[in-house]
Amino acid sequence: MKREMLKTVMGRAMYMAFAVFAAFAMASCSDDDGNNGDDSGDTSGGGSDGTEMEAPRFESSAAKYTITDAGSPYTSVELTASGNYIIFTNGSQAPATAAAAPATRMSVMSDGAWRPGTRYIHYSNILSGKYTKTGEGEYELEGFGKLVVSGSGDQSYSLDITLSGGHSYSLKGNRAGTPSSGTMTDNLCRTWEIVQWRAFLRYNGVTMFDFTDPTIDGLNAKLEAWGREHDPDYTDGDYLLDFTSATGPEQVVFTKSGTYMVTYADSHLAVSTWRWGNQEKGLLEYSWDPNAFDPDGIYGVATAYFRKGNLELTEGFKETEDGFTIEQGTTYTLKEVK
After folding, report:
1. Which N-terminal residues, if any, form the signal peptide (predicted)?
2. Domains along the chain?
3. To the nearest whole number, what is the mean pLDDT of the chain?
């Protein structure tokens, strides 16, 4: 093998998809290839094995409401199908945000996605937690307060918010559009937790390694052991991922309004945007903006496959140089949180 190429690609690979998660506004958008000027792409076919999945518990309540009142302390309120809430506060009225650590490469799991704050507290301009339905249009939002949603059946709604501290707001909002229902969309849009990590490397079609582990630390150990054995220039840390089990992603939320959120073991979160590049092929495009895709077409691509009720997300790259072909990929296996 051409060692210079292997070293370059492996260095790039280890800083690639493991920067981590972090799912998009329309059911069909962009071209099928999802070309973003980047060499990342699907390394396995997307789709489904046909296993039927039940609708999440709060599917009928799932919606994103964009607040239209000028001067409102909140810009949007979203209830997800699995019982999560995501609230964006008005940046001018929110405390200072925490700076996100720079990511080395775009990844669907990466904290390069907008990663401003800590869950369940008003630390930045994102609030998130669990909710329960207490009545028709009535919800108890963990750590936040009560929400009552009413509307006439069109896109305009009234949102009455009573904070846990007693302060209340009566706001107006529009319900965000949702994609046409489809099996892939219905399967994807729920809350997931990561149960297995996989990393693989192929050289001219020959598998150099293909490791899986239920933890990031376990996968790190296998990658480091491989590097120690096969790389004569190995030094400690060469093959470590960007995350450890203490800081890495734990859960991922996809919604039909185009939101995707990643929560991390260190209690931080990242909120970004997703859409289908090609729903039939399972090509899922993601941005690092919580509200939109980059107008210059900068976005990432992952491949979604549903197997026995679990979600497998794969992303990677394939390069050929001087007759040598390197393919590297990472797969996250996720189980639904019920």
Report:
1. 1-22
2. 3-53+183-336 (no CATH), 59-104+117-175 (2.40.128)
3. 79
